[in-house]
Amino acid sequence: MPPKKSKKPADPPPPPPPAPSGSNKNTRGGGGGGGGGGSGPSGNTSASGNASAQAPGHLTPDQLAREAAQAQARATRVLVAGPSWTGKLPVNLLSEHCQKSGWEKPDFRTPKSPNGFYPTVWLRYKNSRTGTVEEVQFAPPNEFAVEDEDGDEAVKTPHMPTVVEAKHLGATYALYRVSSMKNVQFMLPPRFQAWWKIFETVKKADVKAGKAWMYEADPFVVKRERQVIMDKAQKDREKRNAAAAVEGGPSAPLQEDRAEQRKMAMKGWQNVPVVEMAKDVRKMVEELVRKYHAWNPAEVEIKGEAKHHTIEELVGLGFRRSHVEEACEWAGDREECLEWLLVHVPEDDLPPRFLPDKYTVGVTITGGDVILSQQYAADRLCAAGYSLELCREALQRHKGNEGLAAEDLMHRLLPNSTDKAPIFEQDLLSYEDGDPWEEEMSMLESIWGQTAGDDDQKDGSYEPRFRRISKDVSQVLLELDDPPKSGAERAQIPPKLYLVARRPATNYPIHIPVISIATASAADPKAPKTSQLPAHIRLSIIRQAAQYALETLRGEQMVFAIADWLGSNIANIIFHPGKLRDVSSAITQLETPALTQTPVTKKNRKNTSGPMRHINWNEITPAGKSLYEAWLQKHSPPSPKFAKMLAGRKTLPAWSKRDDIVNAITNCPVTIITGETGSGKSTQAVQFILDHLLENKVGDKVNILCTQPRRISALGLADRVAEERAGVVGAEIGYVIRGDSKSRRGVTKITFVTTGVLLRRMQMSGSSSSEIAADDTEDVSGDWAGLEGVSHVFVDEVHERSLDTDFLLVLLKRAMTVRKDLKVVLMSATVDAATFADYFGGADKVAQVEIEGRTFPVEEYYLDQIIKKTNFDVASFSGGGGGGYRGKHSEKKSEAKSDSPSSSATDLEATPKETRDPYIDAAIRSMGDRINYALIGQLVHAIDADLMASAHTTGGILIFLPGTLEIQRTLDAVNRLPGASERFHILPLHASLPASSQRLVFPPAPAGKRKVIATTNVAETSITIEDIVAVIDTGRVKETSYSIEKDMVCLDETWASRAACKQRKGRAGRVRAGQCYKLYTRAVERGKMVERPEPELLRVPLQQTCLGVKSMGIKDVRKFLASALSPPDVGAVEGALDGLLKMGALKDEELTALGRHMAMIPADLKCSKLLVYGAIFGCLDTTLTIAAVLSTKSPFFSPMDKRDEAKAARAKFGDPQGDVLCDTFAHMQWSAMRNTQSTRDVKMWCDENFLSHHVLLDISSTKAQLLSSLKEVGLVPYSYNFQPSPFAPTISNTPSDDELSDPIMSLNRNAANPALLRTLIGAAFTPHISRIEFPEKRFTQLSSGAIEVDPEARQIKFFTPGGSVGGNIRVFVHPSSTLFGAKGFVGNAGFVSYFNKMGTGGANAPQAKDPKQQGQFGGGGGGGKVYIREITPVG
C-alpha cells in the first residue's frame, strides 16, 4: 500500500492556477507557504503525520473548485462570526424566513462610501396569479446613538469595512424589521446580537413617533394599505381644491345662510380634520372601545322627560327605537347614547348620514392573499348576517369547509356562546333503517313541493314552499300566521322570507340543523332594496330559532317544526329583535361572547369598593307590584291545569305546615325542616316562600337557590315544581347543573342547583373579592360574593353529609356573619336536628319545623322470608352470586359447611333456634355476604306474579344496588327471565348516566309492561318515581375511604346506614301500599348497619378541598376546616397541603399561578394540571380526552370468557404507550368514525373492539364540560371549538405552517406527539410516580456471541415512595393494564405514572408475619397487595 502524501496549505480563497505537482492544499491548515511542505520523493507525509493528502494530479477541477469554495466559506464564517461560531449566519436566517413566507430570495446591495460599505436589502413578493412583483427596501439609519463602555453617549454607523460584513448587517436589520416580535436574536452570532439591541432602541423611538407600522411581520401588506390611504388622501385633496375653486375659495362656506346651518345636525363636524386609519388600526381601535370602554362610569340614569326627549331625538336621526332604548340603559346622557349607537349598531342599519362618503353595504374587494373559492363561500355566509371577518376566520379554521364554518358561526349566537351544543346521548336512538335527514326532506317535498296548477303555470307566479338547494341544504318559503295589517309594519317585513336549513356535520337530529334566513332579494337579484333585513335582525331570528330547536326539538325531525315556529314568531322578532349585545359576538369578531354576556354597566357591575347592599324587604317597587298582579291573575280564577295542581299540593302534609314554615324562615336566619318521605318538603317549602313574598309585592327581590346532592334530583324537582306552577322549566323555575342550565337572570325565582355548582359559583366570585387584612384577620366578604342577589339558600338532604354539603355549610355560616339578610334552610328526612342547630348557634337562632310523612303502609320482608317466598334453590344457582362487599377481588365462593362459620351464620343467632328452618339457614350461609343476582331475578318474577294477581296490576319495581357493575349484572339476570322483553321495561339509573337517560325513569312504562329500575343510591332521596310499589334493597352502598399512611383511595362496598335503608323503604309507599324486600337479615340490620353514614369529609382525600379553600382567598386552611361540622383529622389536612406543595399548586402556603388555574377547573387535580399543560404545550384536545377518560372510566369492557381477546383489542390502540393513551386513542378514532359512518357501523366497530358506546358518549359529554371550564378560566379562547374530526385540527406528527401560525390551531400543534404526551402525563400525575426496578442483566451464549436476555415480567418490580423500609412500598401493576406482563417500556422508561392506587387487603387477607415485609407490601393491618392503575411509562 503506497504511503499517503500531504497537501500544501493554500492561503487565498480562489482556486490556485494550474501548476506542477507541488501545488497542493493542506485541509488541516498546517505548514507554511511555498513548497516547504515536507513532502519528499518518497511520498511520505509531513512530520506531524496528521494531515493526509492526495496527490494533486488526482484532483479534478470540480474538486479543486469545491475545496476552494469551502475554504472561502470558512474564511467568511470566521470573518463574520468568529472562529468558534457553529450556528447559522444572518444571511442564511433571512433567506430561510423569506422562503417560509413565500417571498423571493433577498437582494443585497452594499454601495461603498468613505466610511465603508453601507448595507441595503430588497425583499420581493411575486403574485402567482397576476405575475406582479412587489418590493420593499430595508436600510438601517445612517447613525445610531449608543452608550459606550463608560456610559457616555456615542455615535455608531452601520458602515462596515468589508462587503461580506455589510451584507450580514443588512440581513440582521431586515430580520429585525419583520421578526422583532420573535426571539430571533438568540440564533445570531454575538456580534450581531449587539446590533439587535441597538435596533430595539431605534424601534422604541419609531413607535413613539407613530411609526409602529414599520415593524409589521408582513411589509407587503403594510405597503399596500399605506398606498391605499395615500391615494385616497390625494383624491380628497384634489376634490377639495376643485370645490374651492368653483365656489370661490375657502371663504365660500361662510356666505351660507346661518339658519340653514342650524337645521343640519352635526354640521360642525364637517370642519373637523378626518383621520384615515389603516384597516388593522381601525379594527384595533374598535376592539379597544367595544371591549374596554366603561360606559357611564358615574352610573347616571337617564330618567323621565330627559329619557323621552333623548329617545325621540335619536329616533328622529334615523336610529331604531329598540336600539336607542338599549343605549339609554348603558349611557348617562344624550351624547353618550349617540356614541354607544355609533359603536354598536351594524353599518347596514346605521342612518345614512352617519356612513362614510360613497359607502356601499356588501361591497368587498378580495385581497391577493384570499383564496377565491373561500371568498365566495365567505360571501354566502356573510349573507346570513355574520361579519365578513368572522366568516373568513371560520372558513380558515375549518379548512374551507363551508358547512362546518356555518355551524360554527351559528353556535356563537347561542347562550353557551361559541361552544358546540353538548353531544346528545343517542344510545336509545338508532337510525339503522334509514337517514332521518333524507326521510324528512322527502316528507317536506311531498307536502310543500307539489307541482303548480294550470293558472299558476300560465302566469309564472307559482313558487313551491320547499326546494332542495343541494343534498344537505334546503329552503322553505315561510308563511306568516298573522301578517301585519298597518302599512308601516308591512313595510318592515320583506315580501318573501325563506328558512334555509343545512344538515349539521354530525348526527341529525341529535344536533340541530344550521339555520339562516334569506329574503326575496337573496333569491331574486332584481328585488328592491327594501326587501332586505339588517344583519342584527337576521341574526336575532337565527338565535331565537336555534335556541327553540335546541331546547324543545332535539332528538326528533325538526325542520318542519322550525318553519312552523318561525311562521308564528318571525314578525314579532322583526319588530322587536332584542338587544344588540345578544348578537354582537356574530356581528363583529372583536367582541368575545363572554364580554357580550357580561357587559359592565351599573345594572350588573359588582361593587368591589365596599360592602354590597343587602336586600330591603320593606321597599316595594313597580317590578314587585307587576309580579304581584301577575301572581294574582294566575290565582283568580286559576286555570283548570293550575287548579288541579293546586288541589294536589293541598293534599300533601307540608301544606298544613305552610304558615309555620313561612314564619320560621321569615323570623330566623336558619331553619331546619324535617319531614318523612312523601311529605312534600322538597317541592313545597320553596314555593311557600315564593308565594308569600309575591303576595307581599317584593317578588322582584326573590332569588332562591335549592341545592341537591345529585343532578337527577335537581332536574326532577325543577320539572315537578314548574309543572305544579303551570309553567315551564327555564322561566320562573329553573335549574343549573354541570354542563346544562335553564335559568334566566331576573326571571327565574327558584333555581335548583347541584351543591358543586353553588360551591364553584362562590369559589369563582370569592377569589377575586376576598382580601386579607393587615392584622392577619380574614375578610370573609369574599365568601359570599357568589351569593350576591341570593335571598334564600335551601340545602336539601343534609343528612347525607357529603363533602360538598359540609364545605357549603362552613361557607354559609361565615357568609351569614356579613349577610344578615340571607336565609338558610336545611332539609332532610332523617337529619339529626340538634347537631345542626348547635352548629348554627343554638335554638335561639335556629327554627325547627317537623312535617309528618304521607307514605302508605310498606310491608317489610327479610332475607329468610324472601328465600321462603321464592322457593329459591341456592344449589341450582351456584353461579348466580358475585361481588361481595369485602372487595371486588374476592371471588372465592362461600361453602355451606357447619364447621365454617361466616358472618351470615352469626346473623342467624338472633333468631330462636326452634323457629329457624335448617334449609333456609344453609341457604343464607351458602350465599354469604355476596349479592345473589339469580335470587334478585327470581324475586322480580315473584313480585310481578303477585301484582298481576292483585287488584292493582300496575306498579314498578325499584332495585337498590351498590354500583354500575352490579346494576348491569342485575339487568342481565332479569333479562334471563322467561318472556322478560314482553313483560318488563328495564332501565338503569346512576349518576354517570347523562341527564337525558336519567329522565327516562319518570314516564310510565309502555302498556302491558312493568317498569323495573336498577339504581344506586341516587334514587334514595329528592326524586319521586310515581309508580313504584315494590323495592328490593340489597343493603349495600359503595363508599370512598382514604388511607393517610398509604396515600391510597379505596372504593369499598359496605353496608348502608339504617337511615338510608329507611329512605329506600319509603320509595315503595308513595302512591299506594307497597312492599320492601330486604336482602339481608334482621341481625345485619341491627348489628352491622350504623345509624347514619360517616361524614365524607372524614374519609376522603382533602387536596381538592384545601385548594378550593385557598382559591377563595382564605388564608388559614387549617382553621377553616376545623370550623366544619365534623372537623377532619389534622394529619389529613397536613397531608393534603403537602400534596398540593408537591404538585406545584402551593408555594409558601400561597397559591401559585398553576394552583389558581387548577382550582378553577372542576376535575381531579391531576386532570386539571394536565389540562393546563395541554393548553400550554399545544396538545389541548388530546389532554381534554385524557382528562375526560380519567374522569369517567375506561371505555373498554372485558367479558369473563373473552378477557384475552379484550386485552389484545385494547393494546392495539397504543400498547407501549400505556393505559391512558390507549383509551385516549380509541376515543379519538371513535370520534372520527362518527362523522363518516352510520351509527350502526360505529356500534359494530365498538363491539368488535370491546368498546362501550355508552361510555364513549359519556366521555364526549365530559370532554365538552371540561372545555367549557377552560374557556371560563381564560386558558382557551372562546372562539376555540373542538369537534370530532373534521372539526378538530388535523392531527399529524409534523405541525403544518397553519397550525403553528394560527393561534387556535396552534393549541393542537403537538396533539399526536406521544413522547410529549407521556412527559406531560408524568408531570401532571406527580407525585404518583412508581420506580421500575429491573433484575440484573443476564446473557446467553450464541455462536455469534453473547446477547442480553429479556427479563421475565414477574422479575420486574415497582416501588412508590413511603413505607417503613428504605422509604419504598412495593406495588403491582393491575392485571387489567396493557403493561401487565410487559418486559420492557417505551423510551427505556425507568418510571411509570399512575392515576389510581388500590389495595386488596381485608379482614380475611393473609397477614405478613415479617414487619419488614409488611412495609414492602403496603404495610397496615393486612398483607394484601397494592395495585396501580391507569399506567403510563415516563422518564
Structure notes:
It is a single chain. It is built from 52 helices and 36 strands. The strands form ten sheets. An eight-stranded mixed β-sheet has the order 15-14-16-13-17-18-12-19, with helices on both faces. Strands 20-27-24-21-23-22 form a six-stranded parallel β-sheet, sandwiched between helices. Strands 30-33-34-36-35 form a five-stranded mixed β-barrel. The longest helix has 29 residues, at 219-247. A hairpin with a 4-residue loop joins strand 8 (466-468) and strand 9. The protein is globular.
Give me the secondary-structure topology:
Blueprint: H1 61-81, H2 90-101, E1 107-109, E2 112-113, E3 116-117, E4 120-126, E5 133-138, E6 144-147, E7 153-156, H3 163-179, H4 190-208, H5 219-247, H6 258-263, H7 279-292, H8 304-316, H9 321-330, H10 334-344, H11 372-382, H12 388-397, H13 402-412, H14 436-448, H15 454-459, E8 466-468, E9 473-477, H16 487-492, E10 497-502, E11 514-519, H17 520-523, H18 535-553, H19 559-575, H20 584-587, H21 593-597, H22 622-635, H23 640-650, H24 653-656, H25 658-667, E12 670-675, H26 681-695, E13 704-708, H27 711-724, E14 733-737, E15 740-742, E16 750-754, H28 755-769, E17 792-796, H29 803-815, E18 823-828, H30 833-839, E19 846-851, E20 858-861, H31 863-870, H32 903-907, H33 918-927, H34 933-949, E21 956-960, H35 964-975, H36 980-983, E22 984-989, H37 995-998, E23 1010-1015, E24 1028-1033, E25 1036-1043, E26 1048-1055, H38 1058-1066, E27 1074-1078, H39 1082-1087, H40 1103-1111, H41 1117-1122, H42 1130-1143, E28 1146-1147, E29 1150-1151, H43 1153-1160, H44 1165-1177, H45 1180-1191, H46 1203-1211, H47 1219-1236, H48 1239-1248, H49 1253-1272, H50 1297-1301, H51 1314-1325, ...
Helix pairs in contact: 2-3, 3-4, 8-9, 9-10, 11-12, 12-13, 18-19, 25-26, 28-29, 28-40, 31-33, 31-34, 34-35, 40-42, 40-43, 43-44, 44-45, 44-51, 45-47, 45-49
